[in-house]
Amino acid sequence: MAGRAVHLDTNDVSSQDAERIAAQLGATDTLTVGEVTVALSPRARAALGQVFGHLAAGSSVDVVPVTEWLTTSEAAAMLHVSRPTLVQMLESGLMPFDQPAGVHRKVSRAAVDAFIRERREQRRAALDELAKAENPALVDEFLDTR
Question: Which residues contact 46 (CB under 8 A, 6 or more apart)?
Fold first, then answer.
């Protein structure tokens, strides 16, 4: 993804300090730096906890900003599909995209997130329908061979 990644390791925060911070994040809804205290959402607390948990374990962490527009390669990676498959999805109208100057396609992060969310909801609805159709009175046709 575009943007500058920030690399953190134990030279930036000691393992002991990172462990202490991770433990405190798990026990509070706020974060205080100096005289400033801010409320943290559960997701923000979990994300910061993961960062400091990795640092506490001695691992390095890269923090990468999320850009508004993604290349087709970046969007394909997020969707776990190949770039040609993503291009076919875009051309068939499954997701909106922009093609400034008619050269490279760009996909908005919001469109990718919405596509992932919609597909998750469709799968959940299909599984709910399948569960409703299940008749527990029917016997499986599988034979026990042992």
Answer: none
Strand-pair partners of 70: 107
Q: Round to whole Å and give the CA distance between 144 and 88.
A: 45
Q: Per-domain residue ranges for the chain? A: 6-63, 69-133
Q: How far is it, in rounded angstroms, from Cα 101 to Cα 51?
A: 39
Q: What six digits make up the tokens of 120?
A: 């998750």
HEC string for 4-18: CCEEECCCCCCHHHH
108 compared with 142, residue with greater pLDDT: 108
pLDDT tens-place string over residues 37-74: 999 999 999 999 999 999 999 999 988 777 788 999 99
Strands 36-39 and 30-33: antiparallel
**Spatial separation of the C-alpha atoms in residues 80 and 48, rounded to whole Å:** 25
Structure token pair of residue 27: 């026990």
96-108 average pLDDT score? 90
Cα Rg for the chain, rounded, in angstroms?
23
Pairing of β 6-8 and β 61-63: antiparallel
Q: What is the pLDDT of residues 104-130, one digit of tens each?
A: 999 999 999 999 999 999 999 999 888
